[in-house]
Structure formats: C-alpha cells, structure tokens
Amino acid sequence: MLTTKPITVFFKYAIPSILGLLAISSAGIIDGYFVGNYVGPTALAAMNMSYPIITIIIGFAFMFAVGSSVICAKLMGEKNLKEANNIFSKSIIFIVFSSILLALLLYFNLDNIFSLFNAKEDLKNLTVSYLSIILFFMPILMVAIVLDFFVRVDEQPNLAFLALVSSAVANIILDYIFIVEYGFGIQAAAYATGISQALIFFILLPYFLSKKSSFSFIKPYGDFSSIYKAMKNGSSEFINEASAGITVIIFNYIMLQNFGTFGVTAYTIIGYFITVSLMINFAIADSMQPVISKNFGAKNFIRINKFLKIAVTFLIIIAIVLVSLVLSFPDVLIELFLEGDSKKSIENLTLQFIYYSWPAFLFSGISILITSYFTSIQRPFYSITIALSRSFVFPISLIIILPIYLGSVGIFITLALSEFFTFLIAIYLFLRKREKMPTSLINTNKKDYEVESLK
C-alpha cells in the first residue's frame, strides 16, 4: 500500500472488492427473483419492508468495522503494530456483545415496529416471519463484517473476495433448494441468506488465528475510549446505512398510500438497479479506505491524491456504462421478478421510476468516495455531513415537498435530485478541506515521496 505503483494498488484492492460486493448484491437480487416468481409480489414487498431494520443493523457493523479498521491502518502506517492489535482485540470483543444485544432487542419488538406501518395483515406477517429468522443470524454476520474490513487492512483483498463470493454462491444454491425444490416460502429465503452469510465468518476467522495475519488477539489494555473514537470516526457509515433504511420506510409508506402494495413492489425492483450501482461505488470507496489511511499515517499525501484521481476516473466510467444499460434494457430486469396478472401495472410504475431516477447513478459514486476519504483521514464531521445529506436530509425533505407540487413525478424524481444536491455539497467540502491542508506539509511530503520513489 505504501510503495507499489498507485494504479497497481488500486486494481489490486478495487477489483476484488467490486466483484465481492457485486456477488453479494447479485445474491440479493436472486433472492428477489426466487421470492417474486415462486412466492409472490406480496412476499417481495415484505423483503423490502424488512430492509430498513436490516440496514440499521448492518450500518452499526459498518460503523464499527470502518472506524476501527482505518484507525488500525493508520497505526500500521506509523509502524505501531502493538496498539493496532490492542484496538483489533477490543473491536472484536465489543462487536460480539453489542450485536447479540441489538438482535435480541429488535427480535422481541418486531410486531410492534411493523404495526406502525398500517400495512395489510398478510404483508406484516410475512415481514415479521422473514425478519425473525434473519435476526437469528445477524450477530455472526456483524462480526464477519468487522473481520472483512480488517483482512483488507492486512493487505489480503483476495481472501475477502473469496469469502463474499462463497457466501453469494451458497445463497443462490440454498435459495433454489429451499424455495424451488421444497417450496418453503419466504422463510426459506431468510434461512438461505442467514446460512450463506455465516459462511463469511467461518472463512475469515481461521486467517486471524494463523501466523499469516499481522493482527492477533491479545489481552486488551488501557480504557475503551478507542471504541468511542472508532464509532465516531465510522459514524458516517452508520448514517449511510441507517438513514437509507429510514428513507426506505418513508418511501414505502408513501408508495403504500399512493399505489398500494404494488407500489412497494415497484420500488423494490428499482431498488435492485440502484443496489448494483451503489455496491460498485461502495466497493471502490471501501477498498481505498485502508490504502488512504495507511498512506495518511505515513504522510504520503501526494500518493493519496493519485489514488483519488484514479478512483474518480473509474467511478465516472462505471456510471456511464450503468446508465447506458439501465436506459437501454430496463425491461430485462423487470421481467426477472414479475409474472402473472399483476405484472403490467407494476411494470408501468417501475418504468416511470427508472425514467426519472437514472441521473442518480451519475452523482452518487463521487459523493460516496469523498465520504470515505474523510473517514479514512479521520475527519468524521465532513463525512457525516455528506452522509446525512445523501441518505436522510435531501431524500426525506424532497419526498415530502415535491409530490405536493409535482404529484407522482415528485416521488419518482426525488432520488436523482437528492444525489445531485449531495454531490454539490461533497465537492464543496472536499475543495474546502484541500485548501486548508498546510502547503509546508505537502511540500515536505513531496520531497519524502520523491526520495522513496528513488529507493
């Protein structure tokens, strides 16, 4: 991370991360395919209703995984391996206990939570049934997420990729067996997801118990203030996930009020388009976090700038390709999830969503990268500001205001406008932060970097 040519490092970390997260997101899409075609549109809507709870839990895991891993990456860049192992050990202890408590708290309140939606009884029952199974597996998934980030910091991106791909393949196989062969219904999708995600944990854990790992479990020393620091530093990741979940709650409510259960189903399908785009964006941003953090610890600022330029170029190319595909073949993905008499009305709603929301693909990647950059250099205020704008402030305010003046179009256009306004804020904060970086530090680092390059 500190000496290899930047373009080589970028692809070494970005490609496995992209493929791994795409594998996971494609497994989620295949979940939707099996549920939509073999269980029904109401079950597909139930999976979407479950999404906010799942994102809050995963957001907590990401907050802690990112916050603690970038701190450790910086320490490793400073050659302070002892303290890095101390924080690593504290992180694992904390996530084990907190994940169990969080899962139990949600499990015993599921019925009360979904009673607030005023959804039809069959939709509510399916949602509770699905989530009660998912929550059983959540603690092990949360620990696996933390291990996944630490394995990247330890310069093993291919192992992280192997774990994610293995999980995705297992999920597809189990979906087919449980849903198609045995007809177990939406509960089958939950078991398939839970079992496959547990596989990530069992693939990654042996690495940290081996001599290959730079990290090792030690008896923690000192207070647990580093836990608070990690959570603070990774808070933008929690906001990204949890706020997205809250936004989905609001969208689901508005879609239910305006279009009924079919509206939620249409929103679920467009969500699969968006998920693929976001997974690529997050994969690139996440893959750069340990790289930027280590170079930040080593004060390689020119090197960090090169990584950012490469990442931005790659994100722009990906966005153009995705937009071209979405606009050219929207009906292909829609047809994967819908069959029967209800197909036509849901398809029309989904196509309207696609027509108005595609510009979101163009702006989201750079905003997410800048958020990740600020987290990597431990500037949580800036990353939180962007994350809140993108996942909460703009989507919620626009989905409430725009329909008053634009009707249904206001609902459909909200995602694109939210991403555009967030993009403007992210660029402003990034340029402002760069202007504040001391010139003397940049010049000093340039000299050090040139010497290191000669070596």
TrEMBL record:
Coiled coil: which residue ranges? none
Provide this UniProt record's keywords sorted from A to Z: Antibiotic resistance, Cell membrane, Membrane, Transmembrane, Transmembrane helix, Transport
* Primary location recorded for the protein, binned into one broad class: membrane
Top-level taxonomic group? Bacteria
Protein name (record): Multidrug export protein MepA
Family listed: Belongs to the multi antimicrobial extrusion (MATE) (TC 2.A.66.1) family. MepA subfamily.
User: What terms describe the molecular function in GO for this protein?
Assistant: antiporter activity; xenobiotic transmembrane transporter activity
Q: What does the UniProt entry say about where the protein is found?
A: Cell membrane
Q: Which stretches are transmembrane?
A: 9-30, 50-75, 87-108, 128-147, 159-179, 185-209, 238-256, 262-286, 307-329, 353-374, 381-405, 411-431
InterPro entries tied to this protein: MATE_fam (IPR002528), MATE_MepA-like (IPR045070), MATE_MepA_subfamily (IPR051327), MdtK-like (IPR048279)
**GO CC annotation:** plasma membrane
Q: Name one GO biological process term.
A: response to antibiotic
